[in-house]
Design goal:
Structural class of chain A: mainly alpha
Strand content of chain B: 15-25%
Largest sheet of chain A: 2 strands, antiparallel
Structural class of chain B: alpha/beta
Oligomer: heterodimer
Radius of gyration of chain B: 21 Å
Radius of gyration of chain A: 23 Å
Shape of chain B: globular
Largest sheet of chain B: 6 strands, mixed
Number of strands of chain B: 17
Distance between the termini of chain A: 53 Å
Shape of chain A: globular
Number of helices of chain A: 13
Distance between the termini of chain B: 52 Å
Chain lengths: ~350, ~450
């Protein structure tokens, strides 16, 4: 074609519209979750010393190694495996042998995520699946909680025990507020609860820090605030109601909210985008289900804590919740037809 | 005027990027050496050719006649000689029949003397015919023949005319400048349209980032007509007909139906100004106001351009491309089509030419869907793009109908917001095309 103009043909990009994109990408979302977890990790190291670091490090190592060698190419860059490792580490007792934490991280990524088809395909939260596996495999180690206090640098358990050998436990063992409440009917001071100087898993401590970090993520739209709001509201209302009925038997709402793994679970586990509903109405229902199950398990179940099973059970309900809460399409009267 | 800004639910907030041209006065571009006029410049059947190679045509002469009801005629946009009638690159990416006119260098480009119809004495039917004869189509981008919109079926009750001055696409300012510089022309067009449709109320919706346009129109409002101006929240796709009707009237156009079924006719402000021009000068639609802008062009401008001007000439008129020009889009960056060939002509419906630079083009890596649900929060018609996208990738197109694929208007909000960069609206376009082909076959 003849060209009379001075404008020559440049190399042009041809793409489908839209030609502009939003600022968030999946890796930036994942890495911002990782960044927001740093204060929580720091708090757990502050409360539990080097043991917390060792456990979190081991679970991350397990998760990352499996993702690297069995996962798709350069999957580590998307930041999702390290979230699983960090979250799992935060749910484990700080005195846990490192090899167990490593196995948990490896199981979480391998059986919680990769066998489903990798990122975006899994049904259950990989970190919680890893923890459920550890709970089933090593019930004693998973319920041995270190006592608060003592020198900061001391190990809170047999972190360096070798695989399948019983480690010599010379650290002081303590109890969690939920365990104290359930089995010994001892209440814990609310201020200690909220600030986090209580026994428990590495990250099950400082509710305030977790809430602040979650608020940051919600502000960036990297988590759906409706899920933690719904969980915490449900627990507060149910626990508060039971407390009004029988204050001697049922602890108050503040205790229920800030004890155990509820904060970490509500803010970081239940809000995992892959395993939570995609509709906003679904998120409210999902959160209500988790809150309800937490209260039921804690009050009437055989275990002192129920956050893990509550979330895993509701994870299984997500496809159903999604189908039942499809939005009404603009200009139609009825809900969308569902296949 | 309402103090609270009206809007629709959901949508996205792309950067506005209008600063480049929002205060540039509209200039007239000199006639290029040649113009290329495709016979298909509108939604519907292409026009029927009326000229032969070698014919002399004057500016405003009809060279293609409307072929059927949903069609529009095409007029010569410059005086000159028909040099060639052949396939030519079309902005939609194909080659399509077009009339190439060598512009007469020494012509004054004054249109033939023609009788200007006195609209006050015309019946609604005559007005529709005059609009049709002038080849007026929607200038907002879709290029739907205007006379069809002015012909409501028997028994339809139209109570409101809505003027669309949203211009929600980033970068574009042609409607903005038209409103700020030609408010009287827009209001004359409104007057004619209100008479033609027999409606008593007109609402003008303008995103609030155009205060000078709102002020110009407010100042020029006539006392004898019920016209109200409504500043709207700046949000994409505010200018989509269904979203605009929802924002202004709280009426949902039923799924699969037209604005007519909600008792409304929506016209782009540019089209209204073009209609007024037909009744002011008698000249058919042979030129339009277009924004040439973007980080990759040297002199971003708002120009009055003859329809059929080639992209190459337009770029030259605006100082040429910068070094980092990377993608050229006809229309806005959210819904426009990228161009491969600088010889494509500007059409009646081309509201803007955006030259994007390398750093702003969306071409990041695609990741797996993480079910974040951001697309569900963005979709202005409340579809489930996440699920539709999964179905489209599996080529389960029939199932997509159950999830209201037909209601998708390809606005691109889902693709824009997707953190995994999944080309959702492209997948939906493919699915629509595949379904349409199956239906035809």
């Amino acid at each position: 074609m003849e060209t009379t103009s001075s404008v020559s043909n440049p190399n042009l990009l041809i793409t489908a519209s839209p030609h502009l994109g939003g600022r968030d990408t999946t890796p930036t979302i994942m890495w911002s979750v990782v960044a927001s977890l740093m204060p929580v990790v720091a708090a757990s190291i502050y409360f539990f010393g080097p043991s917390a670091f060792l456990v979190i490090f081991a679970s991350c190592a397990g998760a990352l190694l499996v993702e690297q060698f069995l996962g798709p190419k350069s999957a580590l860059k998307d930041g999702s495996a390290i979230i699983t490792g960090l979250l799992l580490g935060l749910t484990l007792p700080p005195g846990l042998p490192m090899w167990m934490a490593f196995v948990g991280g490896a199981f979480g990524i391998g059986f919680g995520k990769l066998i489903f088809g990798g990122l975006g395909q899994n049904i259950f939260n990989p970190a919680l699946l890893g923890r459920a596996f550890l709970q089933a495999a090593f019930p004693v180690a998973l319920t041995t909680w270190p006592a608060i206090g003592g020198p900061w640098w001391s190990l809170r358990g047999a972190n360096f025990a070798l695989p399948l050998m019983s480690g010599s436990t010379d650290a002081l063992t303590g109890a969690t507020p939920l365990g104290l409440m359930k089995f010994e009917q001892v209440a814990t001071d609310n201020v200690d609860l909220i600030m986090g100087s209580i026994g428990g898993s590495a990250g099950e401590t400082s509710g305030i820090i977790i809430l602040l970090c979650g608020a940051y993520l919600a502000f960036r739209n990297h988590l759906n605030w409706r899920i933690p709001a719904s969980i915490l509201l449900t627990v507060a209302v149910l626990a508060g109601g039971l407390h009004l009925l029988d204050a001697a038997r049922y602890p108050g709402a503040i205790f229920m909210l800030f004890s155990g793994g509820l904060m970490l679970g509500a803010v970081y586990m239940a809000t995992d985008m892959v395993t939570s509903p995609t509709t906003n109405l679904g998120c409210w229902i999902f959160g209500f289900g988790i809150g309800f199950l937490v209260v039921v398990i804690r009050m009437w179940g055989g275990l002192p804590e129920g956050v893990m099973y509550a979330i895993l059970l509701m994870n299984a309900m997500v496809p159903f919740i999604n189908r039942a809460t499809q939005p009404r399409v603009f200009g139609t009267k009825l809900k969308q037809v569902v296949s | 005027m309402d103090d609270r800004l009206k809007t629709f639910r959901q949508g996205v907030h792309p950067p506005e990027l209008k600063i480049l041209t929002e205060h540039s006065r509209i200039r007239r571009m000199p006639f290029p050496d040649e113009v290329v006029l495709p016979l298909s410049q509108h939604t519907g059947k292409p026009a029927k050719l009326l000229v032969r190679v070698g014919d002399h045509v004057e500016r405003g002469d009809k060279i293609g006649a409307a072929d059927g009801f949903i069609s529009a005629p095409v007029h010569a946009s410059a005086t000159g000689t028909v040099e060639d009638i052949d396939l030519w690159p079309h902005p939609n990416g194909s080659y399509s029949p077009a009339v190439r006119i060598k512009v007469d260098k020494y012509s004054a480009q004054v249109p033939r003397g023609r009788t200007v119809p006195n609209w006050q004495g015309l019946s609604p039917g005559d007005i529709r015919q005059a609009v049709k004869d002038a080849g007026v189509v929607g200038l907002g981008g879709a290029a739907f023949p205007t006379h069809v919109k002015l012909t409501p079926p028997e028994g339809t009750n139209i109570d409101t005319l809505i003027l669309n001055g949203c211009e929600c696409e980033p970068y574009l300012t042609s409607d903005h400048r038209t409103m700020a510089e030609y408010p009287d022309r827009i209001l004359l067009g409104t007057r004619i349209m209100m008479m033609c449709l027999g409606v008593s109320h007109t609402m003008i919706g303008i995103e609030k980032n155009k205060p000078d346009a709102i002020e110009a129109l407010t100042t020029a409002l006539p006392d004898d007509l019920n016209i109200t101006i409504h500043p709207l929240t700046v949000k994409y796709p505010q200018g989509a007909e269904k979203m605009l009707i929802d924002a202004l009237l709280k009426r949902e156009v039923p799924s699969g139906k037209l604005p007519l079924d909600a008792g409304v006719v929506v016209q782009n402000v540019g089209s209204i100004a073009a209609i007024a021009e037909v009744f002011e000068t008698g000249l058919p639609l042979v030129e339009r106001i277009v924004t040439v802008t973007g980080k990759g062009i040297k002199e971003p401008s708002n120009l009055i351009v003859p329809v059929g001007t080639k992209l190459r000439d337009l770029i030259e008129m605006c100082g040429g491309l910068k070094e980092d020009a990377f993608e050229i889009v006809f229309g806005g960056p959210m819904m426009g089509a990228s161009q491969a060939n600088l010889d494509v002509p500007l059409l009646k419906g081309t509201s803007g030419v955006v030259v994007l630079s390398e750093d702003e083009c969306k071409r990041a890596e695609t990741h797996a869907c993480i079910r974040c649900g951001h697309c569900l929060d963005a979709c202005p018609v409340f579809l489930n793009p996440q699920h539709l996208g999964a179905l489209a990738r599996a080529e389960r197109y029939e199932e997509m109908n159950d999830y209201h694929l037909a209601d998708c208007m390809l606005c691109g909000c889902c693709s824009y917001t997707c953190p995994s960069n999944i080309p959702l609206s492209q997948l939906f376009q493919m699915a629509k095309t595949a379904l349409w082909k199956r239906q035809v076959a």
